[in-house]
Amino acid sequence: MRSTFLPFSSPSISEEEIAAVSDVLRSGWITTGPNCGKFEQAFADYCGADGAVAVSSATGGMHCVLQALEVGAGDEVITPSMTWVSTVNLICLLGAKPVFADIDRGTMMVSRETIEPLITDKTKAIIPVHYAGASVDMDPIRELAAERGIALVEDAAHAAGTEYKGERIGKKGTCIFSFHPIKNITTGEGGMVCSDDAELLAKVKSLKFHGLGVDAFDRQTQGRAPQAQVLQPGYKYNMTDISAVLGLGQLAQLDGFNARRTELANRYLQALEQIPGIQPLELPTHDQLHAWHLFIVRVEGDRDGFMAALKQQNIGTGLHFRAVHLQKYYTETFGIERGLLPNTEWNSDRICSLPLCPSMSDADVDDVVEAIKTVLKKD
Ligand SMILES: *Cc1c(COP(=O)(O)O)cnc(C)c1O
């Protein structure tokens, strides 16, 4: 058994990044400023996106996008229940109704087939979630959304560096990334909205800062902008320059991080083949490049007991995610019962995320595999 605890994830932050953050702290300008502008440009360039707006979290970015799309009372928004709660919470907070699409049992992602039957004349938006670093099969869903004139917003929180048919997620459509500490790159907290819809992006840019016409930092004068006017009531979701400079350093390492994640994931895949009762997620059959945000397995039997037993072996795990539709507020408010989303529920009962982050060694993976063998033997 390991002598030290292996956390399920920990951020990789270099001394150069710490020095860059210190420089910003000493510079006299720590909130949204020149580093945010640079980070937005660098991230858009990385994805091949037309434009990007930095925000304080993916959740804040999603709030601005849904507001910009005028999602509100009487509207329905189709999204998987196998997602982080933030999206579904926001749909409700905006007064709209979440409509849950089931996922593929193997890859845990939505498809045109699971979305299309749910469309009504109230459907305002569709929010697919790229899962664990793999890409949703977007083309059929893009066609569906275009045919029906429905907005499409991609939850790309797991998909920094993911490619679909040779293009990075973020290049097409409207995509929202997260830089929470467990994601593929981090800014402490933070997010990025990329979009090929310039009008939408301009609205997001305003909504993330009170609905004003400009930021406090004026890029022309390199200083404080004159008091701007409210165009529409907005939020306070701007990114700080402290976060942005960290993001610039992290972005430069993203491909290297993802390459290491891929090596570790392949090592898991090979080792776990020999262990019955542990089933990793299936890889999509469409053309894509995996960013390996998470390494998820489905556990036969008592999953919660399995996670607790691994913890006793000094191995941390995560649960991404407990199906949203089965959580207290959602079952009570919408009268939802088990059975609505069979593949979502099947996975929600079995999934467990094993440790995966670029700082891990091959020996760490081997420790996890040994611990799994030990835990399964005890059953
Ligand atoms: C992390 C995550 C979010 C939210 O990101 P924040 O930056 O923490 O707001 C949204 N969706 C999914 C699928 C996530 O994993």
Can you give me a brief rundown of this structure?
The chain is 39% helix and 15% strand.
Topology:
Blueprint: H1 15-27, H2 34-47, E1 51-55, H3 58-68, E2 76-80, H4 85-93, E3 97-101, H5 112-115, E4 123-126, H6 138-148, E5 151-155, E6 163-164, E7 167-168, E8 174-178, E9 191-195, H7 198-207, E10 217-218, E11 223-224, H8 241-272, E12 278-280, E13 288-289, E14 295-299, H9 303-312, H10 328-334, H11 342-350, E15 351-354, H12 362-378
Parallel strand pairs: 2-3, 2-4, 4-5, 5-8
Antiparallel strand pairs: 1-9, 6-7, 6-13, 8-9, 10-11, 12-14, 14-15
Helix pairs in contact: 1-8, 2-8, 3-4, 3-7, 8-12
CATH superfamily membership of the largest domain, which one? Type I PLP-dependent aspartate aminotransferase-like (Major domain)
Shape: globular
* Name of the top-level CATH class of the largest domain: Alpha Beta
Series of H and E elements: HHEHEHEHEHEEEEEHEEHEEEHHHEH
Number of domains: 2
Would you identify the regions where 5 or more consecutive residues have pLDDT less than 50?
A: none
Q: Can you list the strand order of the major beta sheet?
A: 1-9-8-5-4-2-3
The total count of helices amounts to 12
CATH topology of the largest domain: Aspartate Aminotransferase, domain 2
Tell me the β content: 5-15%
Total count of strands? 15
Q: Which percent bin holds the helix content? A: 25-40%
Helix-strand makeup class: alpha/beta
Key terms:
single chain, 379 residues, alpha/beta, Aspartate Aminotransferase, domain 2, Aspartate Aminotransferase, domain 1, 7-stranded mixed sheet, 3-stranded antiparallel sheet, 39% helix, 15% strand, globular, binds pyridoxal-5'-phosphate
